[in-house]
Structures are given as structure tokens and as C-alpha cells.
């Protein structure tokens, strides 16, 4: 059985909710990623911040990324999977919520992220096509 731990990109990092978006952008650049899970003061997942969120939700709205926090951008209920979840659970979570990145948790700690690139390297063509259709199709 293929699990989330098998397909994830290990070593994901949190951005604390109190950190500013300019710091988040710097961390994204350092890590060469387009998304960071947002953690509360107890290191619990409270959202995901993407590079697009920073541009569209902050800069394009005329807000200052040095004064806007990651927590200000956290919206909705964050989705995640346990490291031992099988690939069907991973796909179900991503397809059901039309999300492109999924944090992987083990023992209540962030251990990795699953992105499109991770899926592409581990799924059959049929599975990948079904994922693309459900996530990218217009609602």
C-alpha cells in the first residue's frame, strides 16, 4: 500500500501565524516552495499560505506585506492527512476539497507536504488524470 509518507515531499516547514507576509515570501524563496502551512502558537495547523495569496490577497489589494500576517490570510478549515493514510485517502481529500497542496502530519507534527509534482511522480496516468479533472474543473 502506498501511503502519504511515500509520496510526500519531506521536511516541510511551518510559518507561524504571527509572521508577516514579507517574511513568508522570504521563507518561500529560501525553501523554493509556493506554499507554507500556517501554525498557531501551539504548532497546530490553522491554514495554508500560498505565493498567490500574498500577491492577490495582500499586494494587489493595496495592503502592506510587512504589516499583514500569515494568520490574517488563513481562511476556512485546513485540510491534512496522516502520514500513514493510503493514496486513495490522499486523493479523496485533495479532490473532495479541490486543493493542490496537502500537509502530512505524524504524531501531531508536520512531516511533509504533498503537491502536484509529488502526485505526478507516484500516480498512474489514470489516477493523475482523475485528480486533474476534479481539482481543476470549473465548479
UniProtKB/TrEMBL annotation:
SUPFAM superfamilies: CBS-domain pair. This is CBS domain-containing protein. The keyword Nucleotide-binding does not apply. SMART domains: CBS. Residues 8-65, 73-130 form the CBS domain. InterPro entries: CBS_dom, CBS_dom_sf, Diverse_CBS-Domain. The keyword Metal-binding does not apply. Coiled coil: none annotated. It comes from the Bacteria. It comes from Streptomyces physcomitrii. It holds the Pfam family CBS. Keywords: CBS domain.
